[in-house]
Amino acid sequence: MIPGRHVVFTVGDKTGEVDCAAYEPTGKFRNVIKKLTRNDLVKVFGGVRFPSSKHPITINLEKIQLLKLVSKTILENPLCKKCSKHMESMGKNKGFRCKKCRNKYYKAKKTIVKVKRLLHEGLYIPPPRANRHLTKPFSRYGIEKEGFNKFFPNEFWGLKSPQFNLTNNST
Q1: Whole-structure pTM over 0.85, yes or no?
Q2: Which of 66, 99, 102, 105 lies 20 to 30 Å from 158, alpha-carbon distance?
Q3: How far apart are CA 111 and CA 95, in angstroms?
Q4: What is the pLDDT at residue 125?
């Protein structure tokens, strides 16, 4: 989060990195961005704000497609064998102590726990109040005109569809 409640993150591929910004008017769309983690595979859509003396080049997000979500894990303090409560560390490499029953375990280690992701793969767009006048409404997705891409594929317009890995979880 930066001042003004905007969310900025970095995406990149083998050619480099670029910042992406989800601004405050996009509302709950920013919550999706905050739930991303490093190495998620995403496709971003939006306008480009060119670099200035104060800011690097930035993609102003208009939508984001989550292509592949990586599993997320955290380290937790171990459970007490006697009372099944999480223990507290006694210091680096000194073991753990139970807050409740005061038992000490000098050889206990933190455990790796897989965290359930609250996101799903798919397309996420801001609410209609944040849409610009040329933005396609969500209700129109999936009912494109047939044959348009056959006659005018992305290559005709010189467009490519890059896919990016989330490289930095700094918001």
Answers
A1: no
A2: 66
A3: 13
A4: 86
